[in-house]
Amino acid sequence: MKICCIGSGYVGLVAGTCLADMGNDVICVDSNKGKIDNLKKGIIPIYEPGLKDMLERNARVRRITFTTNIKDGIQKSDVIFIGVGTPSDLNNCADISAIISVAESIGKYMNGYKVIVNKSTAPVGTLEKIGKVVKSFQKKAIRFDLASNPEFMREGEAIKDFTNPDRIVIGVQGEKAKKIMESIYNGISRTDKPIMFTDIRSAELIKYASNAMLATRISFMNELAQLCEKVGGDIKEIAKGTGLDSRIGPRFLQAGIGYGGSCFPKDVNALIQIMNENGIDAKILTAVNEVNEQQKRSLFEKIQILVPKMKNKKIAIWGLAFKPKTDDMRDAPSITLIKQLQEAGAQINAFDPEAMDNAKTIFRGIKYYDDPYSAVKNCDALVIVTEWNEFRDLDLKKVKRLLKCPNIVDGRNIYEPKDMKELGFHYLCVGR
Ligand code: UDX
Protein backbone atom coordinates (compact mmCIF):
# COMPACT_ATOMS: atom_id res chain seq x y z
CA MET A 1 0.00 0.00 0.00
CA LYS A 2 1.25 3.51 -0.76
CA ILE A 3 0.86 5.67 2.33
CA CYS A 4 1.52 9.31 3.07
CA CYS A 5 1.91 10.39 6.72
CA ILE A 6 1.38 14.11 7.08
CA GLY A 7 3.08 15.44 10.20
CA SER A 8 6.41 13.89 11.21
CA GLY A 9 6.08 14.50 14.91
CA TYR A 10 5.67 11.79 17.48
CA VAL A 11 2.58 10.07 16.10
CA GLY A 12 3.29 10.56 12.38
CA LEU A 13 6.91 9.51 12.53
CA VAL A 14 6.45 6.41 14.66
CA ALA A 15 3.36 5.34 12.71
CA GLY A 16 5.08 6.01 9.37
CA THR A 17 8.19 4.06 10.36
CA CYS A 18 6.21 1.09 11.70
CA LEU A 19 3.91 1.06 8.65
CA ALA A 20 7.02 0.98 6.39
CA ASP A 21 8.45 -1.85 8.48
CA MET A 22 5.21 -3.76 7.90
CA GLY A 23 5.89 -3.59 4.15
CA ASN A 24 4.02 -0.46 3.07
CA ASP A 25 5.64 2.33 1.01
CA VAL A 26 5.56 5.43 3.16
CA ILE A 27 6.18 9.09 2.40
CA CYS A 28 6.52 11.23 5.54
CA VAL A 29 5.63 14.88 5.04
CA ASP A 30 6.35 17.79 7.35
CA SER A 31 6.35 21.54 6.74
CA ASN A 32 9.46 21.95 8.91
CA LYS A 33 12.37 21.81 6.45
CA GLY A 34 15.01 21.42 9.16
CA LYS A 35 13.20 18.37 10.52
CA ILE A 36 12.88 16.77 7.08
CA ASP A 37 16.54 17.49 6.20
CA ASN A 38 17.58 15.83 9.46
CA LEU A 39 15.30 12.83 8.91
CA LYS A 40 16.84 12.33 5.47
CA LYS A 41 20.20 12.07 7.24
CA GLY A 42 18.77 9.63 9.80
CA ILE A 43 18.65 12.23 12.59
CA ILE A 44 15.36 11.84 14.44
CA PRO A 45 13.83 14.70 16.44
CA ILE A 46 12.65 12.59 19.39
CA TYR A 47 14.13 10.01 21.72
CA GLU A 48 12.24 6.77 21.24
CA PRO A 49 13.92 3.39 21.85
CA GLY A 50 14.24 1.34 18.66
CA LEU A 51 12.96 4.03 16.31
CA LYS A 52 16.29 5.06 14.81
CA ASP A 53 17.25 1.51 13.85
CA MET A 54 13.86 0.76 12.35
CA LEU A 55 13.86 4.02 10.42
CA GLU A 56 17.37 3.48 9.02
CA ARG A 57 16.53 -0.08 8.00
CA ASN A 58 13.52 1.05 5.98
CA ALA A 59 15.10 4.27 4.64
CA ARG A 60 17.96 2.22 3.20
CA VAL A 61 15.57 0.32 0.90
CA ARG A 62 13.54 3.53 0.35
CA ARG A 63 10.38 2.05 1.89
CA ILE A 64 10.23 5.30 3.84
CA THR A 65 11.12 8.70 2.37
CA PHE A 66 10.83 12.27 3.65
CA THR A 67 9.66 15.45 1.99
CA THR A 68 8.28 18.92 2.65
CA ASN A 69 6.28 18.64 -0.59
CA ILE A 70 2.77 17.86 0.60
CA LYS A 71 1.38 17.84 -2.96
CA ASP A 72 3.81 15.11 -3.97
CA GLY A 73 3.04 13.09 -0.86
CA ILE A 74 -0.72 13.28 -1.44
CA GLN A 75 -0.58 12.51 -5.15
CA LYS A 76 1.72 9.49 -4.82
CA SER A 77 -0.38 7.80 -2.12
CA ASP A 78 -3.56 5.75 -1.83
CA VAL A 79 -3.96 6.33 1.89
CA ILE A 80 -3.21 9.56 3.76
CA PHE A 81 -2.64 9.48 7.50
CA ILE A 82 -2.98 12.81 9.29
CA GLY A 83 -0.74 12.94 12.35
CA VAL A 84 -0.34 16.62 13.15
CA GLY A 85 -0.46 18.32 16.55
CA THR A 86 -3.69 19.27 18.29
CA PRO A 87 -2.43 21.44 21.16
CA SER A 88 -4.76 22.89 23.77
CA ASP A 89 -6.10 26.30 22.84
CA LEU A 90 -6.80 29.08 25.36
CA ASN A 91 -10.08 27.38 26.37
CA ASN A 92 -8.39 23.99 26.87
CA CYS A 93 -10.08 22.68 23.69
CA ALA A 94 -8.00 20.80 21.15
CA ASP A 95 -6.88 23.23 18.44
CA ILE A 96 -7.55 21.44 15.15
CA SER A 97 -6.34 24.22 12.82
CA ALA A 98 -3.33 22.13 11.68
CA ILE A 99 -5.67 19.25 10.76
CA ILE A 100 -7.96 21.58 8.83
CA SER A 101 -5.05 23.06 6.92
CA VAL A 102 -3.92 19.52 5.92
CA ALA A 103 -7.49 18.76 4.81
CA GLU A 104 -7.40 21.86 2.56
CA SER A 105 -4.20 20.62 0.92
CA ILE A 106 -5.64 17.13 0.44
CA GLY A 107 -8.71 18.64 -1.25
CA LYS A 108 -6.58 20.88 -3.45
CA TYR A 109 -4.05 18.27 -4.59
CA MET A 110 -5.84 14.92 -4.60
CA ASN A 111 -5.66 13.24 -7.99
CA GLY A 112 -7.73 10.09 -7.46
CA TYR A 113 -9.54 8.00 -4.83
CA LYS A 114 -7.91 8.22 -1.39
CA VAL A 115 -8.65 6.99 2.10
CA ILE A 116 -8.07 9.88 4.49
CA VAL A 117 -7.25 8.64 7.96
CA ASN A 118 -7.05 10.83 11.03
CA LYS A 119 -4.60 9.67 13.68
CA SER A 120 -4.35 12.96 15.58
CA THR A 121 -6.36 13.13 18.80
CA ALA A 122 -9.23 15.44 17.95
CA PRO A 123 -12.73 16.14 19.24
CA VAL A 124 -15.65 14.05 18.15
CA GLY A 125 -16.94 15.37 14.83
CA THR A 126 -13.47 16.32 13.50
CA LEU A 127 -13.41 13.65 10.81
CA GLU A 128 -16.69 14.92 9.40
CA LYS A 129 -15.21 18.43 9.34
CA ILE A 130 -12.17 17.06 7.50
CA GLY A 131 -14.53 15.53 4.91
CA LYS A 132 -16.35 18.82 4.36
CA VAL A 133 -13.12 20.81 4.00
CA VAL A 134 -11.62 18.28 1.56
CA LYS A 135 -14.77 18.47 -0.59
CA SER A 136 -14.89 22.25 -0.55
CA PHE A 137 -11.26 22.51 -1.72
CA GLN A 138 -11.58 20.01 -4.56
CA LYS A 139 -11.46 21.56 -8.05
CA LYS A 140 -13.53 18.66 -9.40
CA ALA A 141 -15.39 16.00 -7.45
CA ILE A 142 -13.12 13.04 -6.64
CA ARG A 143 -14.29 10.24 -4.38
CA PHE A 144 -12.62 9.62 -1.05
CA ASP A 145 -13.39 7.80 2.18
CA LEU A 146 -12.69 8.81 5.74
CA ALA A 147 -11.39 6.81 8.67
CA SER A 148 -10.56 7.56 12.27
CA ASN A 149 -7.70 5.41 13.53
CA PRO A 150 -6.70 6.68 16.98
CA GLU A 151 -3.27 5.95 18.34
CA PHE A 152 -2.62 4.33 21.73
CA MET A 153 1.17 4.46 21.74
CA ARG A 154 2.97 5.32 24.95
CA GLU A 155 6.17 7.32 24.65
CA GLY A 156 9.16 5.11 25.31
CA GLU A 157 7.14 2.04 24.29
CA ALA A 158 5.78 3.39 21.02
CA ILE A 159 7.21 0.77 18.66
CA LYS A 160 6.05 -2.07 20.87
CA ASP A 161 2.62 -0.48 21.28
CA PHE A 162 2.25 0.05 17.52
CA THR A 163 3.43 -3.37 16.42
CA ASN A 164 1.91 -5.31 19.30
CA PRO A 165 -1.18 -3.34 20.30
CA ASP A 166 -4.00 -4.52 22.54
CA ARG A 167 -6.35 -3.49 19.77
CA ILE A 168 -6.53 -1.45 16.58
CA VAL A 169 -9.55 0.82 16.50
CA ILE A 170 -10.81 1.96 13.12
CA GLY A 171 -13.90 4.08 12.64
CA VAL A 172 -14.77 3.88 8.95
CA GLN A 173 -17.61 4.09 6.49
CA GLY A 174 -17.81 1.87 3.43
CA GLU A 175 -16.48 -1.56 2.52
CA LYS A 176 -13.76 -0.32 0.16
CA ALA A 177 -12.05 1.80 2.82
CA LYS A 178 -12.53 -0.95 5.39
CA LYS A 179 -10.71 -3.47 3.15
CA ILE A 180 -7.87 -1.03 2.53
CA MET A 181 -7.44 -0.33 6.23
CA GLU A 182 -7.53 -4.05 6.95
CA SER A 183 -4.77 -4.70 4.42
CA ILE A 184 -2.54 -2.02 5.95
CA TYR A 185 -2.69 -3.72 9.33
CA ASN A 186 -2.58 -7.18 7.81
CA GLY A 187 0.66 -8.14 9.59
CA ILE A 188 -0.72 -7.27 12.99
CA SER A 189 -4.23 -8.60 12.50
CA ARG A 190 -2.85 -12.02 11.59
CA THR A 191 -1.72 -12.29 15.20
CA ASP A 192 -4.36 -12.43 17.90
CA LYS A 193 -4.67 -8.63 17.99
CA PRO A 194 -8.16 -7.62 17.01
CA ILE A 195 -9.03 -4.85 14.61
CA MET A 196 -12.16 -3.27 15.97
CA PHE A 197 -14.18 -1.66 13.20
CA THR A 198 -16.70 0.82 14.47
CA ASP A 199 -18.47 4.01 13.50
CA ILE A 200 -16.43 7.17 13.13
CA ARG A 201 -17.73 9.06 16.16
CA SER A 202 -17.22 6.11 18.50
CA ALA A 203 -13.62 5.74 17.29
CA GLU A 204 -12.99 9.41 17.97
CA LEU A 205 -14.42 9.06 21.48
CA ILE A 206 -12.60 5.79 22.28
CA LYS A 207 -9.29 7.64 22.23
CA TYR A 208 -10.44 10.27 24.74
CA ALA A 209 -12.26 7.69 26.84
CA SER A 210 -9.15 5.49 27.08
CA ASN A 211 -6.79 8.28 28.13
CA ALA A 212 -9.35 9.78 30.53
CA MET A 213 -10.00 6.37 32.12
CA LEU A 214 -6.28 5.78 32.69
CA ALA A 215 -5.84 9.30 34.11
CA THR A 216 -8.81 8.63 36.41
CA ARG A 217 -7.18 5.48 37.78
CA ILE A 218 -3.98 7.41 38.51
CA SER A 219 -5.75 10.31 40.26
CA PHE A 220 -7.83 7.87 42.27
CA MET A 221 -4.70 6.10 43.49
CA ASN A 222 -3.00 9.42 44.22
CA GLU A 223 -5.95 10.48 46.35
CA LEU A 224 -5.89 7.13 48.17
CA ALA A 225 -2.15 7.65 48.73
CA GLN A 226 -2.99 10.89 50.54
CA LEU A 227 -5.33 8.87 52.76
CA CYS A 228 -2.62 6.27 53.45
CA GLU A 229 -0.33 9.07 54.59
CA LYS A 230 -2.96 10.06 57.18
CA VAL A 231 -4.27 6.70 58.38
CA GLY A 232 -1.51 4.22 57.53
CA GLY A 233 -1.53 1.51 54.89
CA ASP A 234 0.79 1.17 51.91
CA ILE A 235 -0.46 2.39 48.53
CA LYS A 236 1.75 -0.17 46.74
CA GLU A 237 0.04 -2.98 48.63
CA ILE A 238 -3.34 -1.44 47.85
CA ALA A 239 -2.47 -1.23 44.14
CA LYS A 240 -1.42 -4.89 44.24
CA GLY A 241 -4.45 -6.03 46.23
CA THR A 242 -6.96 -4.23 44.05
CA GLY A 243 -5.12 -4.96 40.81
CA LEU A 244 -5.30 -8.70 41.43
CA ASP A 245 -9.04 -8.42 40.89
CA SER A 246 -9.25 -9.31 37.20
CA ARG A 247 -12.04 -6.77 36.78
CA ILE A 248 -9.60 -4.05 37.81
CA GLY A 249 -6.21 -5.30 36.57
CA PRO A 250 -2.78 -4.16 37.77
CA ARG A 251 -1.78 -1.40 35.34
CA PHE A 252 -1.91 2.38 35.78
CA LEU A 253 -2.43 2.12 39.52
CA GLN A 254 0.94 3.56 40.58
CA ALA A 255 0.65 6.57 42.84
CA GLY A 256 3.32 9.19 42.30
CA ILE A 257 3.86 12.80 41.48
CA GLY A 258 0.88 13.12 39.13
CA TYR A 259 0.49 12.37 35.44
CA GLY A 260 2.06 14.55 32.78
CA GLY A 261 3.03 14.28 29.13
CA SER A 262 1.53 15.35 25.89
CA CYS A 263 -1.70 13.34 26.18
CA PHE A 264 -3.32 12.82 29.58
CA PRO A 265 -3.49 16.47 30.77
CA LYS A 266 -4.52 17.74 27.33
CA ASP A 267 -7.02 14.98 26.61
CA VAL A 268 -8.68 15.11 30.04
CA ASN A 269 -9.15 18.88 29.63
CA ALA A 270 -10.41 18.52 26.08
CA LEU A 271 -12.97 15.87 27.09
CA ILE A 272 -14.15 18.12 29.93
CA GLN A 273 -14.64 20.91 27.38
CA ILE A 274 -16.50 18.65 24.96
CA MET A 275 -18.78 17.51 27.79
CA ASN A 276 -19.35 21.08 29.02
CA GLU A 277 -20.20 22.25 25.50
CA ASN A 278 -22.84 19.54 25.44
CA GLY A 279 -24.37 20.47 28.78
CA ILE A 280 -22.64 17.76 30.84
CA ASP A 281 -20.86 18.78 34.04
CA ALA A 282 -17.88 16.42 33.71
CA LYS A 283 -17.75 16.09 37.50
CA ILE A 284 -15.48 13.03 37.52
CA LEU A 285 -12.93 14.39 35.08
CA THR A 286 -12.88 17.80 36.73
CA ALA A 287 -11.94 16.06 39.98
CA VAL A 288 -9.34 13.91 38.17
CA ASN A 289 -7.71 17.08 36.93
CA GLU A 290 -7.84 18.82 40.32
CA VAL A 291 -6.34 15.85 42.16
CA ASN A 292 -3.55 15.74 39.60
CA GLU A 293 -2.70 19.42 40.04
CA GLN A 294 -2.68 18.91 43.81
CA GLN A 295 -0.46 15.85 43.48
CA LYS A 296 2.07 17.73 41.36
CA ARG A 297 2.39 20.30 44.18
CA SER A 298 2.52 17.74 47.00
CA LEU A 299 6.18 16.79 46.61
CA PHE A 300 7.25 20.31 47.54
CA GLU A 301 5.39 20.03 50.86
CA LYS A 302 7.26 16.79 51.61
CA ILE A 303 10.63 18.38 50.83
CA GLN A 304 9.69 21.22 53.20
CA ILE A 305 9.25 18.71 56.03
CA LEU A 306 12.88 17.64 55.62
CA VAL A 307 14.28 21.03 54.59
CA PRO A 308 12.09 23.61 56.34
CA LYS A 309 14.10 26.69 55.31
CA MET A 310 14.65 26.36 51.59
CA LYS A 311 16.48 29.61 50.87
CA ASN A 312 19.94 28.93 49.36
CA LYS A 313 19.57 25.21 50.09
CA LYS A 314 20.77 22.84 47.38
CA ILE A 315 18.22 20.32 46.14
CA ALA A 316 19.19 17.51 43.76
CA ILE A 317 16.58 16.35 41.27
CA TRP A 318 16.83 12.96 39.60
CA GLY A 319 14.62 12.83 36.53
CA LEU A 320 13.07 15.72 34.64
CA ALA A 321 11.12 14.00 31.83
CA PHE A 322 7.41 13.35 32.52
CA LYS A 323 8.21 9.64 32.64
CA PRO A 324 11.15 7.31 31.91
CA LYS A 325 12.41 6.32 28.45
CA THR A 326 11.55 9.68 26.92
CA ASP A 327 13.13 13.12 26.63
CA ASP A 328 9.68 14.72 26.62
CA MET A 329 9.18 17.58 29.07
CA ARG A 330 5.61 18.46 28.06
CA ASP A 331 3.50 19.00 31.18
CA ALA A 332 6.18 17.23 33.22
CA PRO A 333 5.50 17.36 36.98
CA SER A 334 9.17 18.44 37.37
CA ILE A 335 8.16 21.84 35.96
CA THR A 336 5.67 22.50 38.79
CA LEU A 337 8.12 21.27 41.43
CA ILE A 338 11.17 23.18 40.22
CA LYS A 339 9.13 26.38 40.00
CA GLN A 340 8.02 25.94 43.63
CA LEU A 341 11.58 25.19 44.76
CA GLN A 342 13.05 28.18 42.93
CA GLU A 343 10.35 30.48 44.32
CA ALA A 344 11.31 29.31 47.80
CA GLY A 345 14.93 30.27 47.04
CA ALA A 346 16.41 26.78 46.58
CA GLN A 347 19.21 26.00 44.14
CA ILE A 348 18.64 23.04 41.84
CA ASN A 349 21.14 20.41 40.72
CA ALA A 350 19.52 18.20 38.09
CA PHE A 351 20.23 14.99 36.27
CA ASP A 352 18.12 13.21 33.67
CA PRO A 353 19.48 10.55 31.28
CA GLU A 354 17.70 11.99 28.22
CA ALA A 355 15.67 15.14 28.91
CA MET A 356 18.34 17.68 29.91
CA ASP A 357 18.58 19.30 26.45
CA ASN A 358 14.83 19.87 26.38
CA ALA A 359 14.85 20.98 30.02
CA LYS A 360 17.41 23.68 29.21
CA THR A 361 14.79 25.39 27.01
CA ILE A 362 12.36 25.52 29.99
CA PHE A 363 14.31 26.22 33.19
CA ARG A 364 16.63 29.07 34.12
CA GLY A 365 19.29 28.96 36.80
CA ILE A 366 19.59 25.18 37.15
CA LYS A 367 22.86 23.28 37.24
CA TYR A 368 22.91 20.12 35.12
CA TYR A 369 25.16 17.13 35.81
CA ASP A 370 26.33 14.24 33.65
CA ASP A 371 25.61 11.53 36.19
CA PRO A 372 23.32 11.03 39.20
CA TYR A 373 26.14 10.95 41.76
CA SER A 374 27.70 14.31 40.90
CA ALA A 375 24.22 15.90 40.98
CA VAL A 376 23.73 15.03 44.68
CA LYS A 377 27.13 16.26 45.94
CA ASN A 378 26.70 18.60 48.94
CA CYS A 379 22.93 18.77 48.51
CA ASP A 380 20.47 19.20 51.37
CA ALA A 381 18.04 16.73 49.82
CA LEU A 382 17.60 14.44 46.83
CA VAL A 383 14.22 14.30 45.10
CA ILE A 384 13.30 11.49 42.72
CA VAL A 385 10.93 12.83 40.11
CA THR A 386 11.16 10.32 37.24
CA GLU A 387 11.55 6.58 37.84
CA TRP A 388 14.33 5.86 35.35
CA ASN A 389 15.45 2.25 35.86
CA GLU A 390 19.06 3.30 36.39
CA PHE A 391 18.04 5.06 39.63
CA ARG A 392 16.78 1.82 41.15
CA ASP A 393 20.15 0.17 41.32
CA LEU A 394 22.61 2.85 42.40
CA ASP A 395 25.06 2.75 45.27
CA LEU A 396 22.91 4.40 47.93
CA LYS A 397 25.71 4.33 50.50
CA LYS A 398 27.72 6.48 48.10
CA VAL A 399 24.68 8.76 47.62
CA LYS A 400 24.49 9.18 51.40
CA ARG A 401 28.18 10.03 51.63
CA LEU A 402 27.85 12.63 48.87
CA LEU A 403 24.73 14.34 50.21
CA LYS A 404 25.19 17.07 52.81
CA CYS A 405 22.09 15.83 54.65
CA PRO A 406 20.72 12.30 54.13
CA ASN A 407 17.28 13.45 52.94
CA ILE A 408 15.44 11.71 50.11
CA VAL A 409 11.96 12.49 48.83
CA ASP A 410 10.91 9.76 46.42
CA GLY A 411 8.03 10.89 44.22
CA ARG A 412 7.87 7.51 42.45
CA ASN A 413 8.21 4.99 45.28
CA ILE A 414 11.26 3.31 43.75
CA TYR A 415 12.86 2.36 47.08
CA GLU A 416 11.64 0.44 50.11
CA PRO A 417 11.07 2.67 53.16
CA LYS A 418 12.50 -0.05 55.45
CA ASP A 419 15.77 -0.33 53.47
CA MET A 420 16.15 3.43 53.36
CA LYS A 421 15.69 3.72 57.11
CA GLU A 422 18.32 1.03 57.65
CA LEU A 423 20.71 2.95 55.44
CA GLY A 424 20.16 5.99 57.66
CA PHE A 425 18.18 8.19 55.29
CA HIS A 426 15.33 10.51 56.21
CA TYR A 427 13.09 9.11 53.51
CA LEU A 428 9.63 10.28 52.45
CA CYS A 429 7.70 8.74 49.59
CA VAL A 430 4.10 8.65 48.36
CA GLY A 431 1.34 6.91 50.29
CA ARG A 432 3.52 4.50 52.25
C1 UDX B 1 -0.46 7.92 27.03
C2 UDX B 1 -1.31 6.65 26.77
O1 UDX B 1 -0.89 5.61 27.64
C3 UDX B 1 -1.21 6.25 25.31
O2 UDX B 1 -2.05 5.13 25.06
C4 UDX B 1 -1.65 7.42 24.45
O3 UDX B 1 -1.58 7.12 23.10
C5 UDX B 1 -0.79 8.65 24.76
O4 UDX B 1 -0.89 8.94 26.16
P1 UDX B 1 2.10 8.50 27.43
O5 UDX B 1 1.63 9.89 27.72
O6 UDX B 1 3.25 8.31 26.53
O7 UDX B 1 0.90 7.60 26.84
O8 UDX B 1 2.54 7.86 28.83
P2 UDX B 1 1.93 6.85 29.91
O9 UDX B 1 2.89 5.75 30.07
O10 UDX B 1 0.55 6.51 29.63
O11 UDX B 1 1.99 7.76 31.22
C6 UDX B 1 1.28 8.98 31.33
C7 UDX B 1 1.53 9.63 32.65
O12 UDX B 1 0.93 8.90 33.71
C8 UDX B 1 3.01 9.75 33.04
O13 UDX B 1 3.24 11.02 33.63
C9 UDX B 1 3.21 8.65 34.06
O14 UDX B 1 4.25 8.93 34.97
C10 UDX B 1 1.85 8.66 34.74
N1 UDX B 1 1.53 7.36 35.37
C11 UDX B 1 1.34 6.25 34.61
C12 UDX B 1 1.35 7.28 36.76
O15 UDX B 1 1.51 8.28 37.49
N2 UDX B 1 0.99 6.08 37.31
C13 UDX B 1 0.80 4.96 36.57
O16 UDX B 1 0.46 3.91 37.15
C14 UDX B 1 0.97 5.04 35.17
Helix and strand layout, with pairings?
Elements: E1 2-6, H1 10-21, E2 25-29, H2 33-40, H3 51-60, E3 64-67, H4 70-75, E4 79-82, H5 97-109, E5 114-118, H6 126-137, E6 144-148, H7 158-163, E7 168-172, H8 175-184, H9 186-189, E8 195-198, H10 200-231, H11 235-243, H12 264-277, H13 283-306, E9 314-318, H14 333-343, E10 347-351, H15 356-360, E11 366-368, H16 372-376, E12 381-384, H17 396-402, E13 407-410, H18 417-422, E14 426-428
Parallel strand pairs: 1-2, 1-4, 2-3, 4-5, 5-6, 7-8, 9-10, 9-12, 10-11, 12-13, 13-14
Antiparallel strand pairs: 6-7
Helix pairs in contact: 1-3, 5-6, 10-12, 10-13, 12-13, 13-14
Shape: elongated
Radius of gyration: 23 Å
Mind telling me the CATH class of the largest domain?
Alpha Beta
Q: What's the CATH H-level superfamily name of the largest domain? A: NAD(P)-binding Rossmann-like Domain
What helical percentage do the residues reach?
Answer: 40-55%
Bound molecules: uridine-5'-diphosphate-xylopyranose
The major sheet is characterized as: 8 strands, mixed
> Count of DSSP helices?
18
Round the mean pLDDT to the nearest integer and report it: 96
Parts with pLDDT < 50 across at least 5 consecutive residues: none
Biggest sheet: strands side by side, in what order?
A: 3-2-1-4-5-6-7-8
Helical/strand content category: alpha/beta
**What is the number of strand segments?**
14
Work out the strand percent: 5-15%
The CATH architecture assignment of the largest domain turns out to be 3-Layer(aba) Sandwich
CATH fold topology of the largest domain: Rossmann fold
- End-to-end separation in angstroms reads 53 Å
- In total, the number of domains comes to 2
